[in-house]
Amino acid sequence: xxxxxxxxxCYSAPSTKALRFSAAKAPSRVSKIVxxxxxxxxxxxxxxxxxxSGVELVETVDVKAAAKLxxxxxxxxxxxxxxxxxxxxxxxxxxxxxxxxxxxKVSHNVKAxxxxxxxxSELQPLRAEPEDIPLDIVYEDDHVxxxxxxxxxxxxxxxxxxxxxxxxxxxxxxxxxxxxxSYREVISDAEDISDDEGLCSSIGATSVRPGIVxxxxxxxxxxxxxxxxxxxxxxxxxxxKLHTIQRIYISLTSGVPSxxxxxxxxxxxxxxxxxxxxTAIPGSSKHGQARHAASRYKVLEVLAAGGSAxxxxxxxxxxxxxxRAHAKYMGIPLLGDEVYxxxxxxxxxxxxxxxxPSCHGELLKWVSGLDRPCLHAFALGFTHPHTGDTxxxxxxxxxxxxxxxxxxxxxxxxxxxxxx
Length: 420
Hints:
Elements: E1 11-12, E2 35-36, E3 55-60, E4 69-70, H1 71-78, H2 84-92, E5 96-98, E6 101-102, E7 109-110, E8 115-119, E9 137-140, E10 144-149, H3 166-174, E11 221-227, H4 230-241, E12 246-254, E13 261-265, E14 268-270, E15 278-280, E16 294-303, E17 308-315, H5 322-329, H6 344-351, H7 360-368, E18 375-383, E19 390-394, H8 399-411, E20 413-414
Parallel strand pairs: 11-18
Antiparallel strand pairs: 1-19, 2-3, 3-8, 4-7, 5-6, 5-8, 9-10, 10-11, 12-17, 12-18, 13-16, 14-15, 16-17, 16-20, 18-19
Helix pairs in contact: 1-2, 6-7
């Protein structure tokens, strides 16, 4: 069981034999690339392509292909290591033709026998300004970067948060070329945008460039992996898409789940009454905008005589605000999550009856100091996109989370017993 009592600092174990081993490499998805101009035809051993600019694919769609197959998806499957966002950029730039006709719609369906000619577009410079922002780097090599993101730091530049973001800091740290940033409509308070097409396709929201693979919302602290090259970005994105990334979150909740461990499988969609909020919608995810979402949870500690709980979450899917929406649906909104019902008033209504009146003043003081949902990305594990090794990292919550946990433990703590 995960414990926060003995963890004192960020922990990574990429070199520990128990946590790192060579994994079998997946077979190449490329069967025929007629002209790849950025590679020498005499190369016997082809390393992953760092920059796909100028790679040309000329191929007939296989007769075994499905009746309906998206153009961007099919091209991505034929060029190993390229990101779908990069392919989509090439299509929109008019560099792809089907049966001799230019196609600029990424969702265009191809069928067996279609002749596809694709030229990959030039890599666009990043559109954000580098800033010398201190980063808590847990792990780094030539291909990936694992960062412990502080609460209140936005991951991507967006309207209202043009500077001071994790992206700005990474641009400076990695010395990547940049240009003026161009905004697009994004949810600046998004948690983990790793659901299907929601994967972060680039460091700059509108440019095609490897970088941020997934996101944590502004108020969430914890571990986040960054890709330094396109090959790494593509392979990490695929791991997120297949849900093979290990992600463990911990939270403090308002109240305690009625069942100490279980699985929540309720679709999540946009709240029609509040655009920045998602909501759990029971029923089929095939109707409307709700999408399948599943979370596993476990109560690690019952705190403050049942006024709160330390809960571990493991995500099977990665929908926007998934933990926060599922917690609200369960009737245990995260402590400090004003958007999803974990208000200060609710916290006080649960905690005051369980404490001595002489402690209410101090209780109100630290509850009033909550300025974000008590949610922390505690552990992260993935397969290294180049070596195939398994890397695992963990990092305890920051002081604001830890201080509240300490106060709740003083009121009372009990650890549920689980069947072996």
